[in-house]
Amino acid sequence: MILVVISGLMLFAVFCFLIWFSLPVFLTETSLVFSLQWQPEQGHFGILAMVFGTLSLALISTSAAFVIALGLNSFCLLSRRRWLVVILRSLLKFMAAVPTVVYGLAALFLLLPLLRNGLQLGSGYSLFAAICMVILLILPVICVMLDNITTPLWQQYALGAQALGFSPEQTYMRVILPHCKVNICGAALLGFNRAIGDTMLPLMLAGNATQLPSGVFDAMRSLTAHIALVIATDQGSEVYNSLFAAGMILLMSSACICLLSRSLVGRN
Amino acid sequence: MMWKTCSVRLMAIFTLLISSPLIADELSAFDKMSGQLNIAGGTAHIPVMKKAARNIMGHNPNIRITIAGGGSGVGVQQVANGLVDIGNTGRALKNKEMNLGLNSFAFAIDGVAVIIHPENPVNDLSQQQIIAIYQGKITNWQEVGGHDRQIHLFSRDEASGTRSVFSKKLLKGAPLAGNANIVPSNGAMKTAVSQDVAAIGYSSVGYIDEMVKAPTYNQIKPSQEACASGEYPVVRRLYMNTKGAPNGLTQAFIDYIYSKQGAQLIQASGYIALDAKP
């Protein structure tokens, strides 16, 4: 009980802290934190391009990972090669434990040279590279959640559905998925949250350019990478203050997503 | 890169070995001292500070020296507040900071130069060309005498002293193109440029070796000698700052950095040693 109160208070304190420090940044007109231009030497401190970069990274990678996860989940339930399923499940659990910096390093020496020299797509540092690795990062999260949701349902309904003449594929599509669609949304949201919050992969792979990316092969900077890059600047400078705005946006979005997914899962 | 640090270390050890009679003299100032010396601030200074600290603490185990980074801003703040004994900056103190009662000791010169891939045929870039490239006006290597390839821009993060020197002294305040890739350290810059034939970046002169190529700048080769003589203009000084006049251990440490052996450590870190102010 006391621990719950303490952790609640600490979360509240984090919120207050961020609001207190970011309010002046939002309120002063000179810094114009909500603009597209980030050129600190010229006095432009807009972080909207980073907000857009984070959103595009998270949205694209979550949608892709979600589709792949549904495919893997159906394979886990339907495949007759059970030994393959066992291997797949343990592989996913192993993937969930790999630190992101390992993915980043591997991509730096395998994926980027392929993009740069093999496919001639600019310097290789791009939204695309970050998306590929973020998919690997959030895939196990979504997969394991889907698996935990659908496996008990499958055991419960498979026999009855089969008795009614459903094929296994029909059972999965028509019975299992509709039955737990809310939980599936929750799983996708958690994956999305993870994709928004990851720092290492966009920092290492996306190039950190402060432009608005016009395609997936352009370099971009995420909010998290922005914080990591700017935190060493002089305290109190306007560059430094943009940190608080970025942190505020990240905390707000992740709090909203958390509440949304909780309420979704709770309602079911 | 690992080989480079290894070889630098070996060189340092080697120079220590051959100059050992000298060491005894220069380190003997620390003989009867004890206590703790705290250093923080600019990250370019760290290699020099670390080497000096290792020698001093190896000579007299009663002395403890701690070295932290944080950047020039942090260095000034902490030394002004008395949190550290020496605050390092990669720039001269601003007037506002001078008024806090700080003393500055410039001990080294660090040059910042443009680097490209060794296979890039471009051998000279003028200041105008570099400005146009970094503004995004020149986007193909053909326009400056290279192959028909798109230029991949690389720059440093906002907290970088290297970036601020480059921006002020070479770009003359021209805005940086938004599509420039940002890397967080001199080492990462060298790795990125050495892997990409179409890349252009910039780094501290001390980091330039056979992995990357530094084209001449307005026909001047960015070497340590050219930086020292003032012929190559994109340079900065590295400073140690103390609150009030230094004394005791702090004074001995600063003297050591200015000594012959200190100059060797500075050289081994890729910088050019300066003499103490008369």
From TrEMBL, chain B:
SUPFAM superfamilies membership: Periplasmic binding protein-like II (SSF53850)
Any single biological process term in GO: phosphate ion transport
Compartments where found: Periplasm; Secreted
GO terms for cellular component: extracellular region; periplasmic space
GO molecular function, one term: phosphate ion binding
Keywords carried by this UniProt record: Periplasm, Phosphate transport, Secreted, Signal, Transport
Residues annotated as signal peptide: 1-24
Residue ranges constituting the PBP domain according to the UniProt record: 34-260
Free-text function comment from the UniProt entry: Involved in the system for phosphate transport across the cytoplasmic membrane.
Family named by the database record: Belongs to the PstS family.
NCBIfam families registered for this protein in UniProt: ptsS_2 (TIGR02136)
PANTHER family: PERIPLASMIC PHOSPHATE BINDING COMPONENT OF PHOSPHATE ABC TRANSPORTER, PHOSPHATE-BINDING PROTEIN PSTS
Name of the protein in question: Phosphate-binding protein
